[in-house]
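Researcher: Let's do a round of design. I'm pasting the structure tokens now; please hold your answer until I've finished.
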């Protein structure tokens, strides 16, 4: 491997490997009670990890032009997946939400596949001829597809992913030098749609609990326990497996994994995790700058992956410390989730391919 792709691979692998014991310590009690198997979630993640890495290497050998050529068909497949969640026997409804497709023993979360295809589509669409008239037409099509995604996410409901897609798309459009007036107009419409989505769902309104203070701004039960876990960890933590507040945070192995790391590993472990993420983000950023000079599509593709990961990480951290309302956004590579892990590693495969291109003299 070359310089960029080697670094991206190592950092992603490090996060994934750290995630295995952290998922176990965060989930064993819940898994014991509900599934009678304390290792269920960690074993599930362990099974998906080698599969995901294998997919990454497979993706890394596919020519970049393949993704560019078939970006639109892949986007249509992404939409098909989002629609299938509502159609039995494929769609699986859990806790009154429809977000999964079930094929035998396999469960797939189609929005993760859409994330993969949407980034490729945007990169291809925005790298076309920069003629002003064509640019306006492209923006209309992007708005159409984005609002279609937003509508399907509203029906699931999955407002967290709606926020992620909207914010990430807006930033990608801004980076691609799309007309700022048009992108601002798009942003305002999306903010309005997100606001309506939140206000029309009782369970979503329950997640917005203002604390009445500057810090934290929001204080639900989960966030209060998360902040207590972060504070109780001190500098070096209580030791792996010795944290207790994780037992009071529902599904701590998913969206609230960071407080578990802080409680059991302390400020040292939590800072180390954040440092790895910062290093990963900076590596992809410099890769994007390098390859953008050679190929606009490749530059936008890597920047799209960077934007989605950066926003997801940032929103998760801000949610955990009470600066944002509770939202179901996990930490890439660390948090539990087979579909997310596979797609994240497939994107690593794309970055590895782009990295090998970026290092060529």
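Researcher: That's everything. Go ahead.
Model: Designed sequence:
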């Amino acid at each position: 491997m070359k310089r960029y792709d080697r670094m991206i691979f190592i950092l992603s692998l490090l996060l994934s490997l750290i995630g295995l014991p952290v998922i176990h310590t965060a989930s064993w009690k819940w898994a014991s009670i509900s599934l009678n198997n304390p290792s269920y979630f960690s074993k599930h993640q362990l099974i998906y990890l080698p599969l995901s890495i294998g997919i990454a290497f497979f993706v890394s050998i596919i020519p970049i032009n393949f993704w560019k050529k078939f970006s639109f068909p892949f986007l249509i497949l992404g939409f098909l997946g989002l629609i299938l969640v509502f159609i039995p026997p494929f769609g699986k409804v859990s806790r009154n939400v429809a977000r999964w497709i079930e094929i035998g023993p396999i469960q797939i979360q189609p929005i993760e596949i859409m994330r993969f295809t949407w980034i490729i589509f945007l990169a291809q669409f925005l790298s076309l001829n920069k003629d002003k008239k064509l640019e306006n037409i492209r923006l209309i099509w992007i708005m159409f597809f984005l609002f279609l995604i937003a509508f399907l996410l509203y029906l699931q409901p999955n407002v967290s992913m709606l926020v992620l897609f909207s914010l990430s798309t807006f930033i990608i459009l801004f980076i691609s030098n799309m007309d700022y007036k048009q992108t601002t107009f798009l942003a305002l419409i999306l903010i309005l749609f997100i606001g309506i989505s939140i206000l029309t769902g009782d369970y979503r309104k329950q997640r917005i609990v203002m604390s009445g203070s500057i810090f934290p701004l929001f204080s639900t039960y989960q966030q209060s326990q998360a902040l207590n876990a972060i504070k109780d960890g001190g500098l070096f933590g209580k030791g792996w497996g010795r944290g207790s507040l994780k037992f009071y945070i529902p599904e701590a192995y998913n969206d609230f994994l960071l407080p578990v790391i802080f409680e059991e590993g302390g400020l040292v472990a939590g800072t180390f995790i954040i440092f790895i993420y910062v290093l990963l983000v900076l590596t992809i950023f410099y890769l994007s700058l390098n390859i953008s000079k050679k190929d606009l599509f490749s530059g936008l593709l890597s920047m799209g992956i960077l934007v989605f990961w950066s926003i997801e990480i940032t929103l998760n951290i801000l949610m955990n410390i009470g600066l944002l309302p509770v939202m179901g956004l996990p930490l890439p590579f660390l948090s539990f989730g087979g579909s997310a892990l596979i797609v994240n590693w497939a994107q690593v495969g794309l970055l590895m391919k782009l990295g090998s291109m970026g290092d060529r003299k």
